[in-house]
Model the fold of this input.
Amino acid sequence: MKLKELIYGIEYTLLCGSDDTEIRNITNDSREVGEGYLFFCISGAKADGHKYAEGAAESGACVLVVEKEIPLPENTTVVMVKNTRYAMGVMSSRFYGEPSKKLTVIGITGTKGKTTTTYMIREMLISSGHKTGLIGTIEVLDGKEKIPAKNTTPESIVLHRYLKNMVDNGLDSVVMEVSSQGLMMDRVAGVDFDYGIFTNLSPDHIGPNEHSSYEEYRMWKSELFKLCQTGIFNIDDENAEFMMKNSECKIITYGKKETADYRAEGHKLYKKDGVLGIKYHLTGELSGDIAVALPGDFSIYNSLAAICIADLMGVPFDSIRKILEEIKVRGRVEMIPISDKFTILIDYAHNDVSLKSILLALREYEPERIVTLFGCGGDRSKDRRFTMGEVSGELSDFTIITSDNPRTEDPQKIIDDIETGIKKTSGKYIEICDRKEAIRYAIMNAEEGDIIVLAGKGHEDYQEVNGVKHHMDERDLIREILEEEDVTKICGYNNRYFA
Done:
């Protein structure tokens, strides 16, 4: 493929060489460069690709795409663009045959609910015959492989390759999480979105190398709705009006307000075999009773978003209801049913907002106690430790402070910071640094009517210590504990999960 076929429509300056240059492959990693490659020089937070331009040319790169001046190598075409990240997205799409135009692409953005909603949508679409891929925080499902995710939204050159693989594997649609970072860093440049979904917004990802303010964070979230044909908005969120006002798409709404196109009326909670769920009546574009096998008000909103897409894509209502009655999402209010008398669940809640949200939701089920087990990641803002400690102390009956991903920090010092927050409350707590032993304590001391929340790790199956990721899956830890202990001593033991 010639350079001019990839770069048309993008404003550029040909510094040397020819736009008739034939390109064999593309990359933004200088270590991958070979003969006939196009190399994108990306200015990153940790490294600047322009420093590797000369080496890329020596390795055989026939084209360099830059946004800064560099020494011009001989026998190599160099083009300058305003933004190499944006150019990489558009040019990657073209190199891989514009795969997003061959798929129905559904993008989901918001602070909470993205992951759960993507899985709900995918299951609904598959149930009606759609061959659907997924790109998200947990994994990429391309129709053949299950690939662990590195970023919620992959770098554009990787993203378009995933989309091409989906087309090659016979898929007709994909549902993907779209992060604010992905929008700000042009990771979705060149993606043709059919649908965009706005779930909700609250302060997050604000700080060094992220967003400078909440207003900036919100602005980047809204960019999705300039890229999609149809926008689907949670009209109950206070930021929905801003999102819709800044959109350039057809608008569909969901929520509890009477003006919502897909509306939830009333709700009631239910408990069944250690599983906590919620029911409501759906009105508007569709009408009928809905039961969701996940707890909390947020499950109403996540399911409504999924219902909108499923209905618009022709999924029968009976299929929609069946999926929601059985839905399970790894690490998102994931029930581990090992007892008839208490509930234990795993959730990714890893900041004060998400922890508060789930604890308030669980409080509605009137448990005898809420026992919350969590830690905080190292090499991250200390404020999160104080606020999470305070939230757990206020909303839990008992807290078990443990280790999460300490990274390069001393786990005990992180625990001490959490303790500083929890001491502002009257909440009872214990410190057990080893996470497996902390979970053992929670299970062996569970009482009838308890809800035990293992917060922070969610879908993660590792613990990062000093730059090394060691395998640690909380499901495995629970199984090991059950194998090691006298299960007759566990309150209401009735293991349906590992049987």
